[in-house]
Amino acid sequence: MHDPGAVMETEAILRCSGLSLAYGTAPVALSGVDFAAPAGVCVGVLGPNGGGKTTLFRALIGELEPVSGTVESPRCAVVPQTERSRLDYPVSALDVALMGALSRLPWWRRPGRAEREQAREALRRVGLEDRIETTFGDLSGGQRQRVLVARALVQDAPVLLLDEPFSGLDTASAEQLEALLRALAAEGRTLLIATHDVDQARAWDLVLCLNRRQIAFGPPSTTLTLPVLEATYGAELMTLPDGSVVAPPHHHHHKH
Amino acid sequence: MLSSIINDIVDPWREPLLRRAFAEIALLGVAGGTLGCWVVFYRLSYSAESLAHALLPGLVGAALLGLPLLLGGAVGILFAALAVAWAARIGRASSLIDRETAVAVVVTTLFGLGVLLALSADSPPGLNGLLFGDVLGVSDSDLLLAGGLVLALGVVLGLGHHRLLAVGLDRLSAPALGLSAVRADVLLLVALAGTLLVAVQGLGNLLVVAVLVAPPITARRFTRRMAPMLIVSAAVAVLGGWAGLYLSYHAGIAAGASVAGLLCLLALLSVALTRSPGSGRGARSRARRPRTSPAPRAG
Fold first, then answer.
1. Quick one: which H or E segment has residue B78?
2. Nearest to B205 by CA among B84, B285, B110
């Protein structure tokens, strides 16, 4: 792929400048966010739980107003975690992909034939042409994740925000998804991929490290140094005997 | 033999009183059966029951003052909604009582107040009608009102179908799809309030929830998509409700209770006798499998 650093300043389609974010009157959740991403790259967004990955995404879709600083972004589509959606729900893969058309329709319009065709096309694009009528909850985790990618494609946004897309996937599904994401970037889309996994992030064109503030941004080979990883993950970071660095297994508070 | 069966089926339709009851049940069945599917998937069943019970003081108050029941019901439901919202808030903020306990206390208080008013010396007879409904006593204007409800729900649920579906699948992603979860909730609660208000006169304060909650449970066992589920649920509500009317006619038992009882019996039987859709290879088996990497919290 081309060198993202060189084109960044001239061709950036997504830019955050001096961005600080907070929820209501709560203390600032994320500050000092300063980065620009060109079209056609995958950006790994790295950080611990509560580090600000989801908060940044909320600002990019306009759900959260900045406390200070600016966001310049074209329309963004979000690919949420599949674990959040209900599996007992009476919808097909096509129904879910079709939901992506709603953001472009006025409230009195129901999705029609054209939107259905777009949704089918998006499902073909993610390799699920034989699962179009399958119940969403009956699909595997990887397939559900790809249905949600298809839904974002139907939204037809130049920027895709993916929230931990690889969590819970087996190796084969993860490789399939990774190939799909690279192909989508090659078509000119910019992808922001939130992840816990440092090794996963090394595979992308650029990485953005967040821990309640921006720690670093740049190509992974020069950016993911030990001091940066330590600042991103704090004291939780572990160094293995072979010299590789591992982020801690993440602990979660489940909300039921 | 055959002619006696036909007579059993046709007889009730010869009486204008029962013809109106059949029409009222058909309209309420369509309204309750369809809206009920959304109520169940949005987990609003408890809210529906709370509102239905807590609007009793409004109905009794109207009966005491000689005002239209619809007006009393409207005031009652508005007051009940505010009280329930307040109780839920107290419950959330307090460490002593949980939200559902707080709501239960408020609802029971309001219901008790309604009964107290109804049992006072100067109350007109008819508490039974308010509690258990009077489906055999519906007037033409009641039918017109129920017809208007079906039309209004048809427009609202028809236009909102895909958006309600999207919000229900994953509330947190709604803003990313340009949708508002709060707007979906308000839409459903207003539709619910309107339906309770109209249906409570036919089915009564205690039984009205049956037509909202029971048919979707039955329909869910036999359908795998939302649109067919809405249709099956409405059909179950109408046919089950009519069967309840026949039962009440031939067995000489209370009409509202027969309708509600039969709808609930159908729901119980369908749950007991069928496997849930997808339980074999689908959702349930996967939900039980331990996750390799659990869902991270919002960061």
1. helix B69-93
2. B110
A135 → closest Cβ in B172, B282, B293: B282
β-pair partners for A208 = A45, A217
Rounded Cα gap, residues B276 and B34, in angstroms: 20
A85/B contact by beta carbon, under 8 A: yes
Closest partner residue to A102 among B158, B177, B282, by Cβ? B177
> Smallest Cα–Cα separation from B250: which of B238, B261, B242?
B242
CA distance B133 to B121: 22
pLDDT of residue B293: 43
* Token pair of A40 as six digits: 């056609």
Res. B22 pLDDT band, cuts 50 70 90: very high
B151, two tokens: 């039309």
DSSP state of A162: E
**CA B215-B221-B227 angle, 5° bins:** 70
Two tokens at B110? 């309001």
> pTM for the whole thing?
0.85
Report DSSP letters for B34-68, one per residue: HHHHHHHHTT-HHHHHHHHHHTHHHHHHHHHHT--
Q: B237 pLDDT band (50/70/90 cuts)? A: very high
ipTM entry: 0.83
User: In the structure encoding, which two tokens stand for residue B161, read together?
Assistant: 């179908």
3-state secondary structure B137-171: HCCHHHHHHHHHHHHHHHHHHHHHHHHHHHHHHCH
| Residue B70 Cα, gap to closest chain A Cα (Å) | 30
* Contact predicate A151/A122, CB 8 Å: yes
Rounded to a whole number of angstroms, the distance from the CA of B175 to the nearest CA of chain A is: 7
Q: What is the pLDDT of residues A197-244, one digit of tens each?
A: 888 888 899 999 999 999 999 999 999 988 899 898 876 666 665 656
A180 and A126 Cβ atoms separated by less than 8 Å: yes
C-alpha A153/C-alpha A172 separation (Å) is 22
Q: Which residues of B touch A55 (CB under 8 A)?
A: 299
